[in-house]
Amino acid sequence: MRRGQLFWGIILVVFGLALLVGNIFEINIWEYLWPLILIGLGAAILWGTLRRRDDETFSETFVLPFEGSERARIKVQYGAGKLTVHGDPGAADLIAGNFSGGVEHTERQENGVTVVTLRSPVRHTTMWPWDWADAGSHRKWSVGLSDRVPLDLEFETGACDAYLNLASLPVKSLRVQTGASSTVIRLPERAGQTDVRLESGAASMEVRVPEGVAARIVTRGGLASNAVDVARFPRTGEAYQSPDYDTAANRVNITVETGVGSVDIR
Q1: Contacts for 120-129 with beta carbons within 8 Å, 24 or more apart?
Q2: Distance of alpha carbon 187 from alpha carbon 164, whole angstroms
Q3: What is the dihedral sign for C-alpha 86, 90, 93, 96?
Q4: Quick count: other Cβ atoms within 10 Å of Cβ 163?
Q5: Per the CB 3.0–4.6 Å rule, which of 9, 86, 171, 222 could disulfide with 165?
Q6: Residue 107 in 3-state DSSP?
């Protein structure tokens, strides 16, 4: 914040001096002052945008070994950018990823369960003009997860493009909370039962249920546009449900709560 205060202090001093000089020498300083101010502000914003792109596009690798895990609970908090999550069959590590823009992480053990949080680094905004430019769209995360232990996954995302390919993973529970984003989710193929909860605002979500996986789908929303493949999941009371849901070896139980976005489940 001190740098922002310094910047605006300089602007006020220059502005005052220019007015003083104009009054002393009877010069219409306004003809020159405003163009100079606009040029200066524009140059500062451009310089800051380029600087922040350099800061956010550096790549950081993060690897988390198993360390005796019997199950894992993983939470991802991601802002603007592009997020990709995929299975890494047979991987020697629980998590291995490449994080453009960096990553903050915490991990702990709870009775054989590894609890992990991955989050976008907090960016402290100031009153500098270049902090007005949002360079978050330059972040890209690619996260690989092992299929060796059952997984409970939670995603909290902002204005991003997210592709969650969970087809090969033993996901037991999945929760996705998203804002003004575009999200594509491919659900597990052989995880037994998976409980899914989708919560979105002004977002677009595509959910793909693999062939051979039964589903039960309950949708709740205000102005949301929800499309469900009724050929695969006929309407049964308040839910859409596969005819073989009760006996299927692999099935997903999906609850959708949306605002003004759209959800497409097939």
Answers
A1: 120/77, 120/78, 120/79, 120/81, 126/1, 126/3, 126/4, 127/1, 127/4, 127/5, 127/7, 127/8, 128/3, 128/4, 128/7, 128/44, 128/48, 129/7, 129/41, 129/44, 129/45, 129/48
A2: 8
A3: negative
A4: 16
A5: 86
A6: strand
- In the numeric block, the tokens 């430019």 are attached to 133
pTM of the predicted protein model: 0.77
How much is the CA Rg of the chain, to the nearest whole Å? 25
Q: Which tokens belong to 13?
A: 């001093």
pLDDT tens digit string along 96-109?
999 988 899 999 99
pLDDT tens digits, residue range 36-78?
A: 666 666 666 665 555 555 544 578 899 999 877 899 999 999 9
* Structure tokens, 96: 């291995």
* 134 sits in which H/E element: none
